[in-house]
Amino acid sequence: MFMEETATEKKNVVFLVLDSLRKDRLSVYNESVDFTDHVQRLADSAVVFENAVTQAPWTLPSHASMFTGEYPWEHGTTHAESYFQGGETFVSQFERAGHSTAAITPNVWITPHKGMTEDFDHVENFLGKADNRVSVRLSRLGTRLFNALGDGTRRVLGRQLDRVFRLFDVDDSTKSEETVEAVEEYLGSRSDDENFFLYVNLMEPHEPYHPPKSYADSHGVADDANIPHRQKDMFTMDDIDYEALRRVYDASVDYTDDLVGRIVDALEANDLDEDTVVVLLSDHGQALCEDGEQFGHQFTVAEPVVNTVLLVDHPDMGPETEERPIEMRKLNELVPYYAGIAPRPEGVFSETVKGGIEYPENFTGFIPRDRWNEYYRKYRYVKRDGTKVVKSVDEDGRARYEAYDLVTDTDVPVPDALKQAVDEITSAEQPSDGDRDGDAEPDHEMDEEVTRRLEELGYK
């Protein structure tokens, strides 16, 4: 068993996040899938985790949990407090161990602007002129200013901002080619005596969906398919083609698989594969309107969103399937162990796994008022012994409980023990110690490029 082995020699790590990737779109987890050969090849020699659960269904708090080992209600990164306040991350352990550390990602949530890259030596976010110290400070202050507003003001302002953003023709590119080219360049420049930790985020499985035409064609996606590209499209589009939505998602996953293949090939071409651990995962999954309503991941904790991909290909460990439930926040302990820079962690697996999100404050400006109560809710979820309980609370504090049998996918009565467990989860504590860059003058506008990227991802 992999946890009974000890990783003693230092290894490199490629921490590869396939953003918004569902488990059921990989042949590793679903034998009927025939377009993910590269991930399958990696999985054939890897530890495959069957029951990994994210602690939050969107990027920023999910990553904060993985990096710190804390739950979202502990690190305090929420929809309303959309900036990581800092703290010990596992990346800092690599720095202390002498590894070079780098982050290559077009995801705006994993940037200095959002506080997630403080521990990296090298960061490539493809932000152009926005990638500078002044821009980062102004972005942080703009975020804090928005967060400091009252609920009602923030909600009204969010709606107005959304109307403004709709006027702009934003670039929907996920910069996947640029990301992989930067990874190839980084791996090609490593010296033989240098250990490294490389974080990579590929955005193709995340909406909006614009895979290369050859992939769209191979999955039967017509050029004029009526496909929603952002959550707000669900409220403004007529005659949505849900099957086409799922096909274009598959095309994006197919393209992602080939991008993964290029990264693995780059490791082999540079003779790094025998000294490198590849941790491949999704930070969360994606809802594709299975219920005719939910699209994306911002407002739901459904299983396709919180049950995540996780496999670890270690050159000194054989293939294995791990059935025990594990919270993704435990990667904070596991990744340094796999790299040979930390002892074997205890208590990695848990009978009860849990997560949650706060009220989606600045994400709901486009939702009609008569639908508000369906989306403006705080969620907590726990899973134990094949049962999942979800607690959602509306803005008036009224709680709703739902329970599901995860094997049969049917509703069941809420078990008292799991109701107690979900009730014991606290709310996130909002930090109040002020901005760390307090010597800068406040600015009321977030940096234009960062704002544009958020719009591209459908977060405004």
TrEMBL record:
Superkingdom of the source species? Archaea
**Coiled-coil regions listed:** none
Listed SUPFAM superfamilies: Alkaline phosphatase-like
Gene3D superfamilies to which the protein is assigned, alphabetical: Alkaline Phosphatase, subunit A
- From which organism does this entry originate? Halorientalis pallida
Identify one Pfam family in the record: Sulfatase
Q: Which residues form the Sulfatase N-terminal domain?
A: 11-295
Protein name in UniProt: Sulfatase N-terminal domain-containing protein
Q: Where is this region: Disordered?
A: 422-460
Which residue ranges does UniProt annotate as crossing the membrane? none
Please list the residue ranges that the record marks as compositionally biased, kind Basic and acidic residues. 433-460
